[in-house]
Amino acid sequence: MSMFNIFNVTGSAISSQAQRLNVVASNLANADAVAGPDGQAYKARQVVFETVPMGSQAAQGVKVQNVYESDVPNRKVFQPQHPSADAEGYVTHSNVNPVEEMVNMISASRSYQNNVEVMNTAKNLLLKTLQMGQ
């Protein structure tokens, strides 16, 4: 196994965490959204990761397997004066939980930072190895 494989693994992890951060940002941006003209409210999305074994010929490390919509029911709030209220006076809001999304964002950003640190450490080790030969 080559020392350069660490760059493949951390690079794939950084890319996956960046996609996770984008999904979290989209969820947070739509946290207060109500049902649109089609009657469907925004559904929170979650990222599912998949590990790629080291022995495979393809990319190694982590990849995004799927981005799925949460099956948590949307919030219904009784607001009969709201223009988006249904016949019973309820407005359908998104099912995004901002607290969970903030925790998810912190977790993703920490994972991203850790992988950047691993990549920098590996780079410094390779540079030190090259300097030993001088």
Automatic annotation (TrEMBL):
<dbReference type="Pfam" id="PF06429">
    <property type="entry name" value="Flg_bbr_C"/>
</dbReference>
<keyword id="KW-0969">Cilium</keyword>
<protein>
    <recommendedName>
        <fullName>Flagellar basal-body rod protein FlgC</fullName>
    </recommendedName>
</protein>
<dbReference type="InterPro" id="IPR001444">
    <property type="entry name" value="Flag_bb_rod_N"/>
</dbReference>
<dbReference type="InterPro" id="IPR006299">
    <property type="entry name" value="FlgC"/>
</dbReference>
<feature type="domain" description="Flagellar basal body rod protein N-terminal">
    <location>
        <begin position="8"/>
        <end position="36"/>
    </location>
</feature>
<keyword id="KW-0975">Bacterial flagellum</keyword>
<comment type="similarity">
    <text>Belongs to the flagella basal body rod proteins family.</text>
</comment>
<comment type="subunit">
    <text>The basal body constitutes a major portion of the flagellar organelle and consists of four rings (L,P,S, and M) mounted on a central rod. The rod consists of about 26 subunits of FlgG in the distal portion, and FlgB, FlgC and FlgF are thought to build up the proximal portion of the rod with about 6 subunits each.</text>
</comment>
<feature type="domain" description="Flagellar basal-body/hook protein C-terminal">
    <location>
        <begin position="88"/>
        <end position="132"/>
    </location>
</feature>
<dbReference type="Pfam" id="PF00460">
    <property type="entry name" value="Flg_bb_rod"/>
</dbReference>
<keyword id="KW-0282">Flagellum</keyword>
<keyword id="KW-0966">Cell projection</keyword>
<dbReference type="InterPro" id="IPR010930">
    <property type="entry name" value="Flg_bb/hook_C_dom"/>
</dbReference>
